[in-house]
Each structure stands twice: as structure tokens, then as C-alpha cells.
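Write out the 3D structure for:
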Amino acid sequence: MMHLGFIIAVCSIVVASCTSDLSGGGEYDADEIIAMRQEKDAQFSEGNESPIPADKRSSFRGLAYFGPDPAYAVPATFSESAKADTLTLQTSKDDVRKAVRVGKFLFQINGKELELAAYTFVDKDADESYFVPFTDMTSGHESYYGGRYLDVAIQDDDDYVLDFNLAYNPYCAYNENYSCPLVPKENELDIAIRAGEKK
């Protein structure tokens, strides 16, 4: 999965804070989401690992996002797979990535019961987060047609918060030279997720 390491770290912090806010009855911290987005824009504009082609960085004015919305930071239960299945994820190029389906997240949005499979990659030494790619009814319209990703920090218990405000585009959305895992059919949501990064 092609993305900057700082995104995982910042996302983990934000997810942790969202969990505390929701369980404690506090308010959703939109400012933290906005600060993370500003940091990402700065990295994309100036960072050495930016996926923005070098000849386009001078005109880069930041990524497009849906506004932060606490309705899309939803409680979720992680259900571990009885048997971890290894599968092959197709990519935007001819190569493939080996992944393990480790479980699924069960949650609700607008009263609708939903689930998303969670994966880890075989070629990674250690996993600090679950890889949760998805498409939804905004894909190809308001958001990137190939779908978006969530990195969900692994916890000791099964009660999580899925914050779709942290949903981000794969690097191949900005630069065709990158190879990005495609969203498996099991993670195609039949609901619009108007949160996170736009196309």
C-alpha cells in the first residue's frame, strides 16, 4: 500500500481521540481532522515522498475533502475470522499483493447494518493497523472511482470507531506510476459515504 508513514501515525491518534470522545459523550474534534489534512497537504506539496508529480507540485493547492462530520465516525465491532484466509489482491497495475483477511468490522450508518473486511499484508514485517479499502455510492462521482482506504489502528479489544473522515485516496489517484491494491468486491458499500477525501 503506497502512502506516507505519517498518515498512519496521525490517523491512529485521531481514531484514538474519536473513541474517547464517543464513549465519553464529548464533542467530535473537527479541528484535529483539519490539522491532519493541512499537514498532509504540506507533505504532498513539499515532501520528497509526495505522489504528486514533481512538475505539478508548484501548482498544487491542496486536496479536496468532504467537511468533517461526526456522523461518519461510527462505533464498530471487530469480528475476527475463525480462519485467516490468504488472498490475492489485484492492483492498478499488473502486479498483485498477498493479503490476509483477518476479520471484519460490523457497524451502522443511518440505521443501515454494514460490514467491511479488514486485511493485513503478507509482505509486511509487523502490522500496527488493519487495511480497510472500500468503495461506496460516491465512488466515481464525488470521490475517486477506484475507492478509498482506511488504516485502522489495531487495538486489544473488539470495540472500535471507524472514522470515515480519515478515508484517503490511494497514490495511484495522483500518479499512474504507483501500483495500488484494488477494492475487493466484498468491500463495496451500497451507501454514500460523504466523508474523507474527494476525487
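Residues 5-187 form one domain.
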